[in-house]
């Protein structure tokens, strides 16, 4: 994959991506085809990346579960799992190509192994190594609309792989990087908002968001884009626009003003907001190790064991224990990892030196994100005052250059989001 400069991308080429909701049935596929046709009529040379129909991947995963694991003595069946679950995108790629041909357009589906989208061999969670863009670029430059199934690739040895849930976003950005062009991602929302409009009705759509801000938002609970796709877009400087797939070309076949949100380099945003968004994640659990031995290497022992088990840890707080010669250590992790993390600690409880282990899943993480934090004081003071005014207590804090996150009781999560949205004036953007 090449690294295009976002200001010098080939604007005659365009990658369009349609998610599972946009591919949900034949009528929605026809609507996506009309959007593609309108872009083609404007002179764009197009590649389209598609997801499976909404719910189809879950169905395919259930089928693989029903088939059962490999017998003792045989290797894991992750490679065959990938063969099955990758088929959902193959269906929608073919259906979209058929629909476009029915409309009189020259379209063809390209499977991951035909492009090729080359990945490592970490089946079910593969990472893209390279996409040689020559063949695909020549096809779109000749006027062909290339339909590429997202979420899938192929190892150098020729085995089909999948990229993990949400991987079609990453596929689209990677194809755009290979073609040195922008990427339009069509989804069921019309852009990136200052917060979830279902929680705060005064949320505003942002015209532009920096890669770093979007990366933080995606990792902190915003569901618009997959985190890996934003990482790749930032690394390759691919301009990404988030658009609604529920718009329609007008009677003349032209697209109306599409609006949306452009994900781009920070330097392309003239007016940098102190805070751009407020996010919330309920997929959190707090684990507290009471009476942890005050040995200097005890925390290292705890987090080494968690790391070796691939348990991701976020917030960490250490405080004094009532027991002499001991401390209390609190950390957060995703809910799905919480039970595994607690079991790891229980198994090593006597060896590490832990009096008691507590797990609390009734928590939420609320965060404020903005590149303007780098150069403005008082951001934390505004956050903590807004929460205090609403009687919201925080249990842990984590920060970076452009975000502040607090862990709070889950019952106060939506109240906190609305309070912070108002405190930073986001309803007036």
Protein model, in words:
With 429 residues, the chain is of the alpha/beta class. Helices cover 33% and strands 24% of the residues. It is built from 13 helices and 20 strands. Strands 3-6-2-1-9-11-12-10 form an eight-stranded mixed sheet, sandwiched between helices. Strands 13-18-20-19 form a four-stranded antiparallel sheet, with helices on both faces. Helix 6 (167-179) runs parallel beside helix 8 and helix 7 runs antiparallel to helix 8. The radius of gyration is 24 Å and the shape is globular.
Task: Give me a quick take on this structure.
This protein has 429 residues and is of the alpha/beta class.
Ordered list of secondary-structure elements with their pairings:
Elements lengths: L12 E6 L7 H16 L3 E6 L5 H12 L10 H8 L1 H16 L4 E3 L8 E2 L8 E3 L3 H8 L3 E5 L2 E3 L5 E3 L4 H13 L3 E5 L20 E3 H9 L7 H10 L3 E5 L16 E4 L12 E5 L3 E9 L4 H11 L7 E5 L5 E8 L1 H13 L1 H4 L3 E5 L2 E7 L9 H11 L4 E7 L2 E7 L3 H11 L6
Parallel strand pairs: 1-2, 1-9, 2-6, 3-6, 9-11, 10-12
Antiparallel strand pairs: 4-5, 7-8, 11-12, 13-18, 14-16, 14-17, 15-16, 18-20, 19-20
Helix pairs in contact: 1-4, 6-8, 7-8, 12-13
Question: What structural keywords apply?
Answer:
single chain, 429 residues, alpha/beta, 8-stranded mixed beta sheet, 4-stranded antiparallel beta sheet, 13 helices, 20 strands, 33% helix, globular
